[in-house]
């Protein structure tokens, strides 16, 4: 048997259990191209971005856990919403559970949505053993990125 293979197999046998034993929860990253919709605007809104007739905007509807992105007539740079879903762990500490992006440009003056399924704030216990769910999100296009807004996911 090749001595290099024996040495490599021995090294992997020692390192692999250590890597699994020390790994903590890591957030999954989700990339979605939004679904084109004829429905305009947002219901229960937290809206970010350029709210005039030419720019784009992004919003989050708590009821249904839906991000919406509007590509206005002059919104360049693939308008999108970056989002982070945080859950409280069993120690009461907010911890990133999921994160991602909802891309929004199909064509000018179009609305898209990305439907997510987040834990509700009242779910106990959640996946991390605590109670609490919040969403942080920001709108981005060629003009730059807004600051993050934070919403408790309670609907």
Description:
The chain is mainly β and 155 residues long. Helices cover 13% and strands 45% of the residues. The protein is built from 1 helix and 11 strands. It has one helix spanning 3-22, and strands spanning 28-33, 35-37, 45-49, 57-61, 66-71, 80-89, 94-103, 110-115, 129-141, 144-145, 149-152. The strands form 2 sheets. Strands 1, 6, 7, 9, 10 and 11 form a 6-stranded mixed beta sheet that branches. A 5-stranded antiparallel beta sheet has the order 2-8-5-4-3, with no helix packed on it. It is elongated and about 45 Å long. The model is unreliable at 1-23 (pLDDT under 50).
Give a concise summary.
The chain is mainly beta and about 160 residues long. It has one helix at about 5-20; strands spanning about 30-35, 35, 45-50, 55-60, 65-70, 80-90, 95-105, 110-115, 130-140, 145, 150.
């Amino acid at each position: 048997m090749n001595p290099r293979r024996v040495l490599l197999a021995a090294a992997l046998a020692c390192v692999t259990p250590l890597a699994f034993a020390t790994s903590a929860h890591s957030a999954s990253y989700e990339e979605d191209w939004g679904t084109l919709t004829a429905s305009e605007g947002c219901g229960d809104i937290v809206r970010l971005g350029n709210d005039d007739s030419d720019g784009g905007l992004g919003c989050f509807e708590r009821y249904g856990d839906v991000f919406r992105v509007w590509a206005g007539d002059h919104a360049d740079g693939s308008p999108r919403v970056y989002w982070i879903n945080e859950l409280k762990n069993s120690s009461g500490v907010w911890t990133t559970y999921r994160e991602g992006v909802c891309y929004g440009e199909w064509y000018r003056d179009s609305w898209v949505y990305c439907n997510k399924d987040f834990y509700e704030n009242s779910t106990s216990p959640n996946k991390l053993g605590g109670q609490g769910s919040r969403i942080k999100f920001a709108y981005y296009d060629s003009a730059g990125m807004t600051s993050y807004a934070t919403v408790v996911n309670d609907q």
